[in-house]
Amino acid sequence: MEHNILIDKIKRSNSLPEDALTYLSSIGKVIKIKKGENLIIPGKPISKSYFVTEGCMRAYCMNKDAKEHTLQFAIKEWWISDFIALYNHEPSSLTVESITDATLIEFDFKDLEKGFKLFPEFESFQRKNLERHVVSVHKRILNQLQLSAAERYELFLKEYPDIEKMISNYHIASYLGITQQSLSRIRVENSKK
């Protein structure tokens, strides 16, 4: 069933041959993790990428003062990993943790790369995913530089509808680059509108 979520997503955005879909299903391992469990730990080598079928994940780093900076949330039908470490073959600089109990499909990167060679259409599909990811990251950087905290919060709610039910204020504030107190003020101001 978990593989069907991924296959359905692929079919909505791209037409891969049936043997490519079968290969993808064969290399994905369904895993269930508990809230608070870490998939990726800083300093460790990684070779896996994850597709979320249920729950909510978060990727974050810590600065020298031990302050957390959330880089990404991953909800149903989103991918998550430390992509810098994965593609550069270096130890992770991120922590990827489960914010809720979650179900994921785990892929070994070597198996995905083999699939790219076997099925050129799959490589094209993955390239499009990476292009969307790069655009998303660049938009996020520009938003952090150009928008007010209130505007970033509004965009966050559009990008992640219903996520507030799953995560703490601390995680949202960390993602927006603001304090929890600032987030509370923004919410109070929004409620008056």
From TrEMBL:
<dbReference type="InterPro" id="IPR014710">
    <property type="entry name" value="RmlC-like_jellyroll"/>
</dbReference>
<protein>
    <submittedName>
        <fullName>Crp/Fnr family transcriptional regulator</fullName>
    </submittedName>
</protein>
<dbReference type="InterPro" id="IPR018490">
    <property type="entry name" value="cNMP-bd_dom_sf"/>
</dbReference>
<feature type="domain" description="Cyclic nucleotide-binding">
    <location>
        <begin position="12"/>
        <end position="114"/>
    </location>
</feature>
<dbReference type="InterPro" id="IPR000595">
    <property type="entry name" value="cNMP-bd_dom"/>
</dbReference>
<dbReference type="Pfam" id="PF00027">
    <property type="entry name" value="cNMP_binding"/>
</dbReference>
